[in-house]
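Quality-control log, excerpt.
Job 1 of 2 completed; input and output follow.
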Amino acid sequence: MINIPNILTGFRIFLIPVFVIFYYLPVEWSSFSAALIFFIAGSTDMLDGYLARKLNQSTAFGAFLDPVADKIMVAVSLVMIVEHYEVIWITIPAMIMICREIIISALREWMAELGERASVAVSWVGKIKTVAQMLSLFLLIWQDSSEMEWVGFTLLYVATALTLWSMVVYLKAAWPALSKNS
């Protein structure tokens, strides 16, 4: 159960409170530091999955913990961005993203109980959504310039559109099992 990919996932979870502390430090370099920590956490996400496959160290515990770590990091980041900007046009995309994560997590759990987990596996739309979402959050956390923020806002809306699209893809894939067992 203890292997390099799981250690990296655990490290990502450890970084969440560190990220929050650095974000709120009353110093000039806090947003850059928080963005750097967010980037490191995101990098460990890619690295742990790669290493789990490459080293043949995939575990049930890692399969459970990895998406949990990702969802916590994204949810915490979204809440912080909403709190920072205090405008509805940031709040609504954040709500959509958090609600989608809850819906898809519940869907995957239910589909796993039905023995249909493979029908709601991560799709390419979900992967592109994650890249847009993480880049958007990185830019909105850093807040180095108004241009950077506008790119972040744009990517936030791209990620929101992909969030809705990927949710429809997952629900469509699961619909035969859902309608059969209702």
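Job 2 of 2 completed; input and output follow.
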Amino acid sequence: MIFVTAANGEVTYLSPDWGAFTGRDTTSATRHGWLDAVHPDDREIAVNFLRAARDQQSEYSFRHRLRRADGSYAWVAGGAVPSFGPPGRTFLGYFGSLTEISPSGSEPLSAYGTLGRFIPPPTGSTKRTGSSLELIADHLLMAHGLIEDDGAKELLPMLRLALTVAGSLLAQEMASGRPTQRFH
């Protein structure tokens, strides 16, 4: 599940995977509407953690419970990398992904986050329903995490540019209300 945020932290794009998983309309979940699908016990933790990440313009990883379409909860892991653009490396927002890590939200886990590093979540069991662009975005995010582990830091500027462009295209796709045909 892919998401894009603006610099103020408001969600500007949620992939169709997110809508299929939660049973919610992705358009109504933009801005801060997505919080309605977060477990009530995890909501305040999520808001405070994501505010801190935004204020620091830092990469992050985060785990919380998300309500499924059937009303049950599942643990999801996700994270995001910041996007910067002109002028002067202005913070544009985040590009991130969520993956189901446990089909039940009843395990004795707790919501938590880590600032300063995006760690791609393990491959989940959710069925991909999005566009090719969303699949590309998922792989770019995974590559970002692998580069951090491998130490190939010289690739990061190019990868971050690709993530920024992918996030922008996904946001444009959602704003237009129709999928961009060249990515299907």
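Post-run check on job 2. The chain is about 35% helix and 25% strand.
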